[in-house]
Protein 1
Amino acid sequence: MNSLGTYMIVAAALFSLGLFGILQRRNLIGMLISIELMLNGANLNFMAFNRFLAPEPAVGQIIALFVMGLAAAEAAIGLSIILALFRTLQSINVERAQRLRG
Amino acid sequence: MLMSTEAFAQMAFWIVVGLTFTGAAIAVFPRNILYNVLGLALALTGVGGLYLYLGSFFIALMQLLIYVGAITIVIVFGIMMSRPLHLEVPKRELSKVAMAAAAGLFFFMAIVGVVFKTQWVPAVQRSTDWSVETIGHLLLTRYDLVFEVISLVLLVAIIGAIVTAGFTRRLS
């Protein structure tokens, strides 16, 4: 019913909002939230191509599943890093975390 | 006057898109991190609805289960355990916000240009097999290596998360 272009523009807008968020936030959890938005934009693109162009509909769905699994792993490890950073710095502002700067 | 089913589906589609963008805007713009997480949940649910329109009930369910059900909750846990909400909120510099907006807008324009310039050609032979059975079959035959590697990545991520969060507790 809706064309491929509609879905791709929705996906691009989601990705751009995530990109804007990750560049402008200084709060690590906020940056993580923006990353999730970007991953969803990419995933939506995969599913749209899968619906309109791909020869086998199963393959795009499998890729979307893999992206979801990786996003879960990324959220877990990111939050543990945030916890560790908070314990040592008492802050999750990324600009405070510069003890290793060269 | 009754609307036709098609017009109703079309209207529902735009409502879902609107919900997604509202959620995404709430996830990015407010300063309060709790609003951001709730907006993220709304946006992810909207994307799940778009998956329904793209013909995959299974992936829409997985989106609800993994993203809305697991990842959002994990982020809420992270907020609970890290910063009390009344402590310092990082300052935003106007120049940085402007540059971030410019980068996002530039990327969006580039993608829209690509979308409209390209001639998208569907594959010559397209199978119409959308069943979950086929997905499971492919996962265990053609894509079994990727499947196992993903499982390994998840295991390593869990162990790494425990180690990272546990060691700093002992240090401090």
Note: Chain A touches chain B through 73 residues (CB under 8 Å).
Protein 2
Amino acid sequence: MKEKHFDLQRKIADLEKRNKELDDKLSRLNQLLLPFLESLEEETQIEEKLKKEMPKLKFKKQDPFALGKGGWGVPYEELKELLDEE
Amino acid sequence: MPAHVEWFDKVINFPPRAYIDTSYLLYLKSYLTHRTDIRYQSCKNFYDKMIAHNVSMYTSVLSLEEAIYIILYKYGVSRDMKNFQDRNGNAFSKISDFRKERRREFIQSYKKNLAGVIDFIQFFFNLGIRLAFPKSYIIPTSSRKFTVKDKSGSVANYAFGLIKKYELDPMDAFHVAIAKCLGIDHIVSTDKGLKVINEIKLFCYN
């Protein structure tokens, strides 16, 4: 009976030790994650601010190659010249 | 060791991700108005293949800036200003002079050519190409201190390295550096000049 009691006490001590280790790990993990969370929060705030300042442009969703009748486009030689100068 | 170059019509194995450069975007755009040109057709066919093979396409604001500059100023305003003369009776050779001396005509030309830019942006948004930014990241230096590492620093560093190594055009170097910092090794371009870069695999128009 005494043996069992000591065995249980040892198990409890082991569990407490393990619990403390996990707590320490969790605390370190929180410290590591905090800057990322702050950065994420900051990004979200910026995004919200931008949404208020400038409404999102709405473009008609369609096949891009069905567009462009009369739009911008140049013959090959001209485009090559433009790009070669770049 | 030469860089790995594959011509558009010969590519069989497609990567999961590819970086699209300015020249290729403008070739695709020009296909819309010049559909019988085989060179533009080749670019369009390659785009179709990338879509069919589920290639995630990326580019950066650099490409948009370059394309918009070409459409608005280099092609548009530059062409219009040739119809006007400066105070010495000569044709304008600089946009800045045209803007200063012929303000009204400059604004007219700017507004007219802006339509081409809007048309391009609408086209771009429908292509399904993602605009990517190498983001900042934070690394712990100890349990309590953190350093913010800005990846744009890595982009600049990589770009300068390429310029030094290959005497590359700085804009090309920055395109490649952005792609590399995004973890992308495949560049889609019509610029054969990029084939000197060993660090990338180039898909190019032959």
Note: The interface with chain B takes residues 28, 31-32, 35-36, 39, 59-65, 67-76, 78-79, 82-83, 85-86 of chain A (CB under 8 Å).
Protein 3
Amino acid sequence: MTNKTLIQISNDLSAGIYSSREITQDIITDIKARDHQFNSFINLSEDLALEQAGAADARRAAGKAELLTGVPFAHKDLFCTQGVITTCGSKMLENFIPPYESTVGQRLLATGAVCVGKTNMDEFAMGSSNENSYFGAVKNPWDLNAVPGGSSGGSAAAVAAGLVPAATGTDTGGSIRQPASFCNLTGIKPTYGRVSRFGIVAFASSLDQAGPMCKTAADAAVMLNAMAGFDAQDSTSMQVELPDFSADLEQPLTGLKVGLPKEFFGPGLDPQVADCIMVAVKQVEALGAQIIDISMPNLELSIPAYYVIAPSEASSNLSRFDGVRYGYRCDQPQDLMDMYCRTRAEGFGTEVKRRIMVGTYALSEGYYDAYYVKAQRIRRLIKNDFVRALSQVDVIMGPVAPTAAFDLGSNTKDSVAMYLEDIYTLSANLAGIPAMSTPAGFVNGRPVGLHIMGNYFAEAKLLNIAHQYQQITDWHLQTPASNGNKGA
Amino acid sequence: MSWEIVIGLEIHVQLATQSKLFSGAKVGFGAEPNTQTTLVDLGMPGALPVFNQEALRMAVTFGTAINAHVSKHSVFARKNYFYPDSPKGYQTSQMDHPIVGEGHLDIQLEDGSTKRIGVTRAHLEEDAGKSLHDEFDGLTGIDLNRSSTPLLEIVSEPDMRSAKEAVAYMRKMHAIVTTIGISDGNMAEGSMRCDANVSIRPKGQKELGTRAELKNINSFRFIERAINVEVERQIDILEDGGKIAQETRLYDADKNETRPMRSKEEANDYRYFPCPDLLPIDIDDDYIEAIRQSLPELPDQRSARFVSQLNLSEYDAGVLSASRSLADYFEAVVAVCSDAKLSANWVSGELAKYLNQHSVEIDAAPVSAAQLGQLISRIKDDTISGKGAKTVFEGLWNKAGEVDAIIETKGLKQVSDLGALEIMVDDVIAASPKQVQQYVDAEVEKRGKMLGFFMGQVMKASKGSANPGQVNGMLKQKLDALCS
């Protein structure tokens, strides 16, 4: 099954080539056999998955199967799963079993999809390399010396390695797109408000958005169809028309206006990555698109704005991990203050503590206006840049990250260098627009993703472009050597 | 030196919504710990708040009731602090953009004059849970039933100049919130409580003195006592040449003193910022006007009507309109007996006395308004005397039956049969020759007083059942006849 797409597996299930129980068992066996190389899973839920698979087979037998019925997938371990440990990559929640399922999880389960386990991630989604996990770093299946990207690094590695055909991710500043780029996947961060955040442990509430990570745009459309939609339990979820994201995949790109912001191609961008992107843009042009140079002058302010807003929200969101009701509690607390201090000092990792401190500082009396308020002002400028640009062009393209996947350990000492990894991705979260990564080549054997950003609620357009691009390229079909050639 | 007292109040009103401010959990008092909670109230990871629109309607109703500016755009903010009964590590409140802006409230002072107290703002916020220290052998239990209960915090200007004014303001606020139906106003259960900011300054000085904040006062009586004892404390300090520390203090009702809260109970920097999980509240003029139009008769209007329509005194009208339940009860009594003055006397007299003695709220009074109205009707038609009526009332309170049944079983019916009365009167006159002689010998103007003795004898003879008015008239007539 290793290299099959989600849709191929769905078709196989329909054709009765194998049952959901069979493929689920195969996948779990495969993960157990191979994942020690990648460390992409934190927990497997074998019994529950087989139970779900059995139910899916029964549903299929009853003639009520949908596209995802019986198809195995994995959840980033930030999605609360009822009865299944949900760690967020943290010691703080090492043994936390939610008594509830995220809205996204409920929707996927409702279609009959089978969750085989929970994938590794940077602790509380804070990181760009998946080296900030309490459960150890994840390795990139394309090169075991390279990071898979983060924070959805486990989901990316699991799909790239062919362990599962699809996985969920979340993207607060690039955490779906950058690992998708590093692992040769199609990953989409939908418009803020498109997918419910209920039951997804919050990092930065105004930026977090969940999306799928798959091999192809067509797979991503199927996943997004299941995941998206208004949810009354999330006040920031938007009550807008929900299209069939698969419906427009085959639309031609004739007349499509593609903007290339010069700010995405400045110093800091690896020239080889730039070459891959320009080749890809030419190919999109060949599909009938018109390429237009644009400027978005405030993009460079994304990093300082993001690294005030996201830690500020995180410092508040992570306050609930206090050792009182659930999660880690330090041994033998002397008093309340000692319990708080040691629980949080021992339960959180370095990067999480760093961001909590930055956010706490930024929100403090006397600094609030200089940091948080100013960052919000910058956020509006960036949003305005996008609104202006997207009134001239249909989509914006560029690189997802300045480089291909970097070596494990190469950026861990320098937080700022690590933060610069997100320079091209942060702005979409700040503006709330949808953005995705699609495979667009390799640099020294490591994948490079093409970044496509569009207008609010234009996910179908993005997927259409990625799908059309995938019809004339085969980057997305390439698989790491370690996967063997068992499948397609 | 002569000191001026300056008081501002922050009143927390628990809104009478069915469910909580940000979750569907039921709001209620006295349930088993942690049974009225959802994922949201427990602060579970990934749980998200959903704003209760009914709380919005109630807050806007309040704003229109005090003629305040109602904000068309308001924003929830997070107030960050760690405490075990604060499950998310922050309280969701409103900071820069409260739902209700400036307004005012008129209070009646003891001299009968009216004083206007400014309301700075009123904002929506969620309540915290409760820490339980007693039952866990040195450990602390947490009950999150109250977590996310909707509160309206009403902040006044520092316009009050005495503890009595503060009480009058609080009572007026109580009357308004109960009249417009946004709170049950039950102070014993914490549905209404206040923090008092108290400072003093030399009379004539413009700038305010340093204030102390008295936290969580939950009865009208305690407001008055807490403020007075705090003012005494501040005067003692200043007159001894000391300085007032700006601090939060607790009123200890048992010791009748205020003491500083432990520093751990205070947080210094709440790091307020707009809550990213909730959208700003945007409402339009139509929404606000529709609510304004649906306001019930407010306490001041009702009081004015009691004076103009029912000829009550200003004082009685003020007392009886002080809460919606009381005013409703009073009007229901009047509807039955058609005597506003007697109804007022009974409601603010005997009924109030019983309610007070038994710590019962008017809504739970065992004597219904219909029963009290019936009782007053029986006084008016001379069936019972005022004294007998009190006995009947006691019977009603103790659920001894309906008015007429109690009159019957207790034998309280006044004897109004003239024949029977005349026999009793004649017997008393015949049995009291000495007193009759004194009456005859007395000057005319002194005779009235002397009737009392004969009245007493007749009432005694009738075991209290004689109609005093008739006995009086008959005695006077018969004794005066002996004088001529």
Note: The two ends of chain A are 8 Å apart (CA to CA).
Protein 4
Amino acid sequence: MHAAVVVFPGSNCDRDLAVALERAGARVSMVWHKDTSMPEGVDLIGVPGGFSFGDYLRCGAIAANSPICRSVKDHADRGGYVLGVCNGFQILTETRVLPGTLLRNAGLKYICRSVPLTVTTADSAFTNGYVAGQSITVPIAHHDGNYHADAETLRALAAEDRIAFRYGDNPNGSADDIAGILSANRRVLGMMPHPERMAEAAHGGTDGAAMFVGLVRQLEHA
Amino acid sequence: MKARVHIMLKTGVLDPQGEAVRNALGSLGFDGVNSVRQGKVIELDLKDGTDEAIVNDMCERLLANTVIESYRVEIL
């Protein structure tokens, strides 16, 4: 399985994401934001966490209009797999690859701690390594993670089983306790928590590892 | 020519920053502030004769996130 991880000025989880994918058995290429195309034969694009372009204007807004993001959007439109974590999730909403947006945390504070999540669906390449209803612990580290979408979008996400993760104890005010959502074709996942920071024993837990192992297993045979 | 773009959160979208400002005004003794909404203003210095439609396009594609924000363009 060949994954590409996009690097923007201000990304800071790009190498963590690459390491988590490599440990799961993926071959990883790093792609710079000024690049205009993905390497040949990429199965998965990772859009990492961080503070791309200093979060100027709105989180993810400048990154969403960078040259490489056209390739990310094309890849998603062709039915390719994309994983956006934290700032990556914000970028995927700004490119409209995923619906809704991430507002400032309801409590206005930057929150950096491990939180309980419920795996809401196991029906995706990202979550097939879990059991629906399973509780896992994964860190969050964000100031703008308060998921917001109109009522119709929230209804559709729930009805189509596209809510991948919910917070056990909603830390940021997200609508419907949403921590991560899938695209309509279930091949794009955006989530605020950081599975790549909970992927090996030295991280203090391995609850995130199943995502990368599951992705590699499924996309290896795709 | 110059244009000024006013960007505000849409009605119904929670504005925790505005709420924090309202609370701070209250603790300074300013009673009677029912609500505060915080937005942003962007000033653009443009080539003379730039069509307002182009500024609207800038708002739609970058300056505002129309999922949560509304905008108003003022040509100066």
Note: The first strand of chain B starts at residue 2 and ends at 9.
